[in-house]
């Protein structure tokens, strides 16, 4: 027999949906489960869903088992035989919500809206509880957006995340024994007599495994939940069709409901949730300061889930900027690296453990983001940040947001109008929620459609930003995710992303170094170390920056970027050779009073290449370019400090910084890892190949002679100086 013994326990919040504590523990004194006796617990009323909507899930086990998978045709056929239940539920939903909206309208008419705000918020929460799990799930998503809903509603709807009235523990223990096929006291040496938390689909008990002594969380599914949700989805899907037809909307709302419903049905299969948890742990459990609980598959069935018990506090209740950044990095990996993502990251499912780590809970609602869409999403972010709205319009076609037959020019113009103001603030200030809001009219005008797969991605990002905004009102998820996107573009081996990077950096064969500088700058903001996160708003030691840049460029993943850098350095040295030969030839002609027959000419492209090589040196050295007064010569911005004439054309050859300014770069080299030092030793050979045998040279022999002469000349100078604009 299990006997209840009062025993206060510490705060236990993980693998549950609250941070409350439980009061008692069952202790075993006899093995016979038929003699389990539960001491009187605190009396509680029947939960609101059972009280007001109990008729919805009063099915026999055989009927309920027929609704374990989402199949709208099967659900429709099932309830076609029960028209009275469908009618009763439809009337209940419309009358209950209709009454609430009518009362809110009367508050506005009577100018009492502000006065009754909190009362109406509490009433809405009670209504949603009465209507059941489907509506609670919708409210949970809304409650994660403090930037979109008023504080009073936020406070009330947040209670739906983990403080829902539980169902009877006696029923729960019967389900555990039936599902696992053995007496409860054979499986567990201890189990809490009451749930430590209750959610829309189930409730959680703390227990101790008899076999290993490990403390675990045991989640038990609310009885009849499949039939209740099936009926509500059938009604919601019907209403979605009416709304689309009446509003002449382009998005297939029924497909969106189907996608959401499919994920919700998968969430109700605890065996699938356990498999999701195992996969999530394998993919992301090794990320620094991320904790994913271990699943106990042997003690898990379709309606009972057993997993490792964790303790901590809700992330939303702890102002920890570092863990928010860890969450952003983990979400980036989920969405854009592996495509397997947590589609329900509301505050009840994210925990700060007592040792300062981020714990993910509840793996029922997961999403899959295909590779083609991941690449398309990354390209869209790149084009948005770089204001390439024409390419962005094509990305929207790739993502399935607009039909291929749309007028691309008109869409480009519309996107420019929508995004220009937001992007002009800088990528760090772009709000994901604001972008979605600004897109509203444009989506309607150009027949935008939200693909079913994209609805869960949007929800995941929106919920994550909502949690972050609750901690820091100025936080922008897109601004914090973009550094990881920039780093992925610079290091990914995907042929498509390589092509995207080259297209981004080159236009009509001209290297756009400003875009590379932007990508480098943003990628260096991608940090997960706590000390770097805490210091990123303050000054950063230049030596640390240089080391980060070198570590990044010498990494094996950055091979493609190194190729581009070497190509541009070779072009710069080629231009430097021409400039040096021009300078020396003119000096000799002046000194010995004769003119060379035909000195090499400096083109505008040579001047740009000279400027680029200096900016690349500054970029790699972690230095900033000085802003000197400049004028424009032949359309090229130049400084007034040093102008010389070559072949009758005025060309800027402003001096570079002295070599001494690049000494910090050399001081960092011994501190690099051994493999990166080896990579550094291979660079001269790679550079020589680009320098002396470039595919772009018009005359290889002339190029070799010019470069040899210029390098020899520069080597003899004590104070080596280069040129820039």
UniProtKB/TrEMBL annotation:
It holds the Pfam family ABC1. Residues 190-524 form the Protein kinase domain. Transmembrane segments: none annotated. InterPro entries: ABC1_dom, Kinase-like_dom_sf, Prot_kinase_dom, UbiB_kinase. One of its GO terms (molecular function) is ATP binding. Belongs to the protein kinase superfamily. ADCK protein kinase family. PANTHER family: CHAPERONE-ACTIVITY OF BC1 COMPLEX CABC1 -RELATED (PTHR10566), OS04G0640500 PROTEIN (PTHR10566:SF119). This is Protein kinase domain-containing protein.
């Amino acid at each position: 027999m299990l006997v209840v013994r009062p025993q206060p326990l510490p705060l236990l919040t993980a693998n549950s949906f609250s941070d409350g504590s439980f009061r008692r523990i069952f202790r075993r004194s006899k093995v016979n489960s038929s003699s389990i006796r539960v001491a009187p617990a605190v009396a509680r009323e029947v939960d609101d869903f059972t009280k007001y909507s109990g008729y919805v899930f009063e099915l026999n086990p055989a009927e309920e088992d027929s609704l374990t998978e989402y199949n709208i045709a099967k659900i429709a056929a099932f309830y076609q035989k029960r028209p009275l239940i469908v009618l009763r539920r439809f009337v209940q939903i419309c009358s209950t919500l209709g009454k609430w909206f009518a009362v809110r309208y009367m508050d506005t008419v009577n100018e009492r809206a502000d006065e009754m705000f909190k009362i109406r918020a509490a009433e809405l929460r009670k209504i949603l509880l009465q209507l059941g799990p489907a509506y609670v799930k919708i409210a949970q998503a809304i409650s994660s957006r403090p930037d979109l809903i008023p504080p009073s509603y936020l406070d009330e709807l947040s209670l739906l995340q983990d403080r829902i009235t539980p169902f009877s523990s006696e029923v729960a223990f019967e389900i555990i024994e039936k599902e696992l096929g053995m007496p409860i006291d054979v499986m567990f040496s201890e189990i809490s007599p009451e749930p430590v938390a209750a959610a829309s689909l189930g409730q959680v008990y703390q227990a101790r495994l008899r076999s290993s002594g490990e403390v675990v969380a045991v989640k038990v599914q609310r009885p009849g939940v499949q039939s209740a949700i099936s009926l509500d989805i059938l009604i919601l899907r019907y209403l979605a069709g009416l709304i689309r037809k009446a509003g002449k909307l382009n998005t297939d709302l029924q497909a969106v409901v189907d996608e959401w419903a499919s994920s919700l049905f998968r969430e109700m299969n605890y065996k699938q949730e356990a498999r999701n948890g195992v996969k999530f742990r394998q993919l992301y459990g090794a990320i620094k300061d991320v904790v994913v609980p271990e699943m106990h598959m042997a003690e898990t069935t379709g309606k009972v889930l057993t997993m490792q018990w964790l303790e901590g506090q809700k992330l939303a209740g702890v102002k920890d900027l570092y863990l928010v950044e860890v969450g952003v990095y983990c979400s980036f990996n989920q969405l854009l690296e592996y495509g397997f993502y947590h589609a329900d990251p509301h505050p009840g499912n994210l925990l700060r453990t007592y040792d300062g780590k981020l714990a993910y809970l509840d793996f029922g609602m997961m999403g899959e983001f295909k590779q083609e869409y991941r690449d398309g999403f990354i390209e869209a972010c790149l084009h948005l940040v770089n204001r390439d709205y024409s390419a962005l319009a094509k990305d929207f076609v790739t993502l399935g947001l607009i039909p291929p037959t749309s007028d691309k020019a008109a869409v480009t113009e519309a996107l420019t109008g929508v995004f220009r103001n937001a992007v002009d603030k800088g990528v760090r200030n772009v709000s994901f929620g604001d972008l979605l809001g600004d897109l509203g009219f444009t989506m309607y005008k150009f027949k935008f459609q939200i693909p079913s797969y994209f609805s869960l991605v949007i929800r995941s990002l929106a919920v994550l930003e909502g949690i972050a905004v609750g901690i820091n009102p100025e936080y922008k998820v897109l601004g914090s995710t973009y550094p990881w996107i920039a780093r992925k573009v610079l290091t990914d081996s995907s042929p498509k992303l390589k092509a995207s990077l080259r297209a981004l950096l080159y236009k009509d064969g001209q290297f756009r170094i400003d875009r590379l500088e932007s990508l480098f700058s943003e990628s260096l903001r991608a940090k997960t170390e706590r000390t770097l996160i805490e210091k990123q708003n303050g000054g950063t030691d230049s030596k640390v920056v240089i080391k980060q840049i070198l570590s990044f460029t010498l990494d094996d993943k950055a091979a493609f970027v190194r190729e581009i850098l070497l190509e541009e350095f070779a072009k710069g040295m080629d231009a430097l050779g021409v400039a040096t030969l021009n300078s020396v030839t003119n000096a000799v002609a002046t000194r010995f009073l004769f003119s060379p027959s035909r000195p090499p000419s400096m083109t505008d492209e040579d001047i740009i290449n000279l400027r680029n090589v200096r900016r690349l040196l500054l970029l790699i050295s972690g230095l900033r370019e000085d802003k000197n007064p400049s004028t424009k010569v032949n359309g090229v911005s130049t400084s007034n400090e040093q102008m010389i004439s070559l072949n009758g054309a005025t060309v800027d050859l402003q001096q570079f910084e002295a070599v001494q300014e690049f000494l910090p770069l050399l001081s960092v080299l011994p501190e690099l890892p051994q493999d990166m030092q080896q990579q550094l030793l291979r660079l001269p050979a790679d550079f020589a190949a680009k320098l002396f045998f470039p595919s772009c040279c018009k005359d290889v022999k002339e190029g070799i002679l010019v470069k040899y002469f210029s390098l020899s000349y520069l080597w003899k100078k004590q104070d080596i100086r280069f040129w820039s604009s």
